[in-house]
Amino acid sequence: MQRGRRIAFDYGDVRIGVAVCDPDAILSTPLTTLQSKSKELFNEILEILQEYQPVTIFIGKPTLLSGLSGEAVQKVEDFSARLAERTNIEIILIDERLSTVSAMKHLQSAGVNAKEARKSIDSVAAVAILEQGLAITKSRKQ
Q1: Which CATH number covers residue 97?
Q2: Are 6 and 23 in contact (CB under 8 A)?
Q3: Which among 118, 106, 119, 92 is positioned nearest to 8, based on CA atoms?
Q4: Is residue 25 domain-resident?
Q5: Which pLDDT value is given to residue 130?
Q6: Region of residue 53 (left: phi > 0; alpha: psi -120 to 50; beta: else)
Q7: How far apart are CA 10 and CA 142, in angstroms?
Q8: Count of other CB atoms within 10 angstroms of residue 22
Q9: What is the per-residue pLDDT across 82-132, written as a single tens digit (0 to 9) for each?
Q10: What distance in Å separates the CA atoms of residue 6 and residue 21, rounded to the nearest whole number?
């Protein structure tokens, strides 16, 4: 696998969780949460991309449990297309059916209360997306 950071976005109508990994793709950490409706959203994203210089961007694709695409998938695809217009970094959509559920369980097991969990759930869900993307990428290279 190519050395370099990877970054993940957990897109939502209100917030977008962001996570990043180290250049060796070993440790994934929550980075920040962005406001989806911000007029500066793509400028903020481009600043993050400039700072971390990722080689790949993973974006969670919220496929329904049935495997079908819903309205949320279209919003993610639109977000992905708008991001692709602004960068030449490879973008990979990752099936994230249970990333938020997994993130909430992780936060609860760490003793984080529900109020505090709401503040960080999106970036922790982005970590789940990032780790899934890394696993897929590593398995393809073997």
Answers
A1: 3.30.420.140
A2: no
A3: 92
A4: yes
A5: 95
A6: left
A7: 27
A8: 13
A9: 999 999 999 999 987 655 556 556 656 666 565 565 657 788 889 999 999
A10: 6
Residue 20's domain comprises: 6-141
Residue 64 lies in a domain: yes
Q: Is 17 left (phi over 0), alpha (psi -120 to 50) or beta?
A: beta
Q: Does residue 107 fall inside a structural domain? A: yes
Question: Based on the structure, what is the number of domains in the chain?
Answer: 1
Token couple for 66: 């049935």
CA distance 20 to 12: 18
Strand order in the sheet with 28-35: 28-35, 15-21, 6-11, 56-61, 90-95
Give the integer Cα–Cα distance in Å for 89 and 121: 26
Q: Using an 8 Å Cβ cutoff, are 87 and 49 in contact?
A: yes
- Enter the pTM of the model: 0.85
Cα 40 vs. chain centroid, distance in angstroms?
18
Asked if residue 1 belongs to a domain, the reply is no
Q: Residue 14 carries which DSSP code?
A: S
